[in-house]
Amino acid sequence: MVVLVFNVVAMALEWLAVRLLAILAVHYFDDFPMVTLVEDATSTRYSFESLLSLLGWDLKGGDKAPPWSPMLDSIGAGFDLSGVGTYSL
User: What is the band of 55 on the pLDDT scale with cuts at 50, 70, 90?
Assistant: First the structure.
């Protein structure tokens, strides 16, 4: 029951991030992988952390909140986004 309730809350956090803050985010249990432009990374992180803070949530630091990188690692799956936006014929 607790997991179900947490997933409903996580869906609400995702909805707020996407709809109110225009952050490209999804959630998988307690992970919230996000994608943004390099120049927007600092403000995107600040916006999401501020949302959590306003709602009374504490964000874990360390490995749970790594710095922004073109390498995205979520629930054991790794994504290399460094080539996004570059095209060659």
Answer: very high
